[in-house]
Design brief:
By secondary structure, this protein is mainly beta. The protein is 8% helix and 42% strand.
Length: 415
């Protein structure tokens, strides 16, 4: 009996290990500016239609021109491993070397810029929709970083509208998402079990609301009109700076200094939660690589030390404050942490970022969760982008398809 008990516990622990959700692996310090390219200059949330190309770019700042290899894996809607084998979701092979790279040109910081396009000669096609993870390894087969991406089929129409919260307590601070899913080509069998929706605010997968089931149906329409279940804090517009001309003061930059690399000192920011909302156009946390004098910013944009500063207020004392944005895939770690400078009476931090236009804000980290509104505030008027991904697994099917993608903005928010 004891042996059987321990065997059972062992199997249970192993099962939990095997089927746990996969997380993205963050890169080491010498890997910078990881982004998915799409049909716009700014980095994309990688949700692509089946048959479209996936383009991943990144820089290696060690100047070694080292070899990198990639692998692609398929996952269920909840980012647990799929049961599909590679031949079921891929034509060709992965675990191939990334062959396309160029060295930086006319920059103080030497780097190699790598570009991976899928499909390519080795990985000819991704055959099914769903969740994918693209992992990059070095020549010693050590994982360097990984990034999630998604492929959808246009089998359903996904209507997205943004409303104010119906909860009076949060009516000035939250936005809720209403969804209508319908299709003329496929019946939704047992939708409460087979259909799942994920809502993403400002391309940030880390704060996505997942596993949302239809509230009710009207014919072949699936209706989602929840309040709390599909509500997000409104947040505030992102702060921004631009240094496309590294030798001159641009938007948001107070002063410039050249040492081993250029240093850009931003204007000191302040707490906005206690102040009235002010509309300020942004790109919802994103960034664009730019160089005013370059034909190809990918290899001609330089790396610059950006100096951030934030005025303290009493409520921020002893808080864990971080710089937050898509420039590092919304990661918070020691590199993004603000440190109080007693001599200047401000919180400061310095990040090495490639030239361009950047959105950022300050958040408070609290027990592995983040509070965006403590410093920036939460306002229902804030312009936010929302994407809704709809997954479908028919009864007896072996993987989760993505059957539709919808998008909406709070620019025309209604009651």
């Amino acid at each position: 009996m004891p042996f059987k008990f321990f065997a059972f516990i062992s199997i249970l622990l192993t099962s939990n290990l095997i089927f746990s959700q996969v997380e993205e692996v963050n890169p080491p310090d010498y890997i910078k500016t990881i982004n998915f390219k799409g049909n716009t200059p700014e980095t994309q949330l990688p949700i692509l239609r089946l048959g479209e190309s996936v383009i991943l770019e990144f820089d290696a700042l060690n100047g070694d021109e080292e070899d990198f290899y990639y692998k692609i894996e398929h996952f269920n809607f909840d980012w647990t491993p799929s049961v599909l084998v590679k031949s079921e979701y891929m034509d060709g092979f992965d675990n191939q070397r990334i062959r396309n790279y160029e060295n930086s040109f006319n920059t103080y910081q030497i780097y190699s810029h790598y570009t991976l396009t899928i499909p390519n000669a080795q990985t000819r096609r991704l055959k099914v929709s769903g969740n994918y993870m693209l992992s990059v390894f070095n020549s010693d087969n050590i994982l360097v970083f990984s990034r999630k991406f998604m492929i959808y089929e246009n089998m359903a129409h996904v209507g997205v509208s943004v409303k104010r919260s119906r909860d009076v307590e949060f009516i000035e601070e939250k936005q809720r998402i209403d969804i209508v899913v319908d299709s003329n080509t496929m019946p939704f069998n047992n939708p409460t079990q087979t259909i799942k929706a994920v809502i993403i605010q400002n391309n940030n997968l880390k704060t996505a609301i997942s596993n949302i089931k239809p509230q009710y149906t009207i014919g072949n329409q699936l209706i989602y009109k929840y309040d709390k279940e599909t509500s997000f804090w409104g947040g505030n517009e992102y702060l921004f700076f631009e240094n496309k001309d590294v030798r001159a003061a641009n938007t948001g930059i107070q002063s410039i200094d050249l040492k081993d690399l250029y240093h850009n000192y931003l204007y000191t920011n302040f707490e906005r939660a206690s102040r009235p909302y002010t509309y300020n156009p942004d790109i919802n946390g994103n960034y664009v690589i730019l160089n005013l004098d370059a034909e190809n910013p990918s290899i001609e944009a330089d790396y610059v030390w950006i100096h951030f500063s934030l005025l303290p207020i009493a409520s921020l004392k002893n808080k864990d404050i971080h710089i937050y944005g898509n420039f590092n895939n919304y990661v918070i770690d020691e590199s993004t942490k603000m440190v109080f400078d007693e001599s200047r009476n401000v919180y400061t931090n310095t990040l090495l970022l490639k030239q361009g236009f950047y959105n950022y804000k300050y958040i408070v980290a609290n027990n592995k969760s983040i509070e965006e509104g403590v410093i920036s505030g939460n306002f229902y008027q804030t312009e936010n982008n929302y994407k809704v991904i709809v997954y479908y697994r028919d009864l007896g099917a072996r993987y989760d398809k993505i059957i539709g993608l919808g998008e909406g903005s709070s620019v025309n928010i209604s009651n």
